[in-house]
Amino acid sequence: MHGTAPPGRWCRTLGDEDVRQLVALLGELHAAHDDPIRFNHGLRYLIAQAWTAFERAPATPTRHPAIAAADRALSADPGLALGELARLGGTSQRRLSALLRAATGSGLAALRNRHRVERALVLARQGMALADAARAAGFCSYRQFHRSCRQVTGVSPRAARMPG
After folding, report:
1. Is 94 in contact with 132 (CB distance < 8 Å)?
2. Which candidate, 51, 74, 77, 144, has a CA 20 to 30 Å from the CA of 3?
């Protein structure tokens, strides 16, 4: 059965506490490398703990790391260029675009607009005028913001600004 994976999803994102525990166990295991008996028992325990953490983690589809990196970067700065986003994700521009299309059905512009809309709405909820919030979030015009807000939220900016 070389080269084929067993059926099922074998990639999950572990919780922060599980990751901390596994990293600590790896440190202890590394410290025991001179003692073969302790090392081998520790390795068995580490594998059992890793499996337990895997089973505990939700079996939801995970995003490609390049998409996750682009999403985080755009959250901080919606104006980042595709080249910079690709570099942060450790991939090429072409590959990042293809990954986005495959995962979301749309490209970088839609992801960027979502982040800009979210940022503008946060600013508007903090008391900034909608037009000023739109410009501060990177929109060239209120009209562009209005159109993007409707696409992202399904409602007008005024309605989306309302809490709840």
Report:
1. no
2. 51
Mean pLDDT over residues 79-98, rounded? Answer: 91
Round to whole Å and give the CA distance between 11 and 111. Answer: 24
CA distance linking residue 40 with residue 29, whole number of Å: 9
pTM of the model: 0.59
Strands (E), the chain: none
Q: In the chain, how many H helices and how many E strands?
A: 9, 0
Using CB atoms within 10 A of its CB, is residue 86 exposed (0-12), middle (13-18) or buried (19+)?
A: buried
Q: Which of 1.10.10.60, 3.40.50.2300, 3.40.50.261, 3.90.1150.10 is the CATH number of 107-164?
A: 1.10.10.60
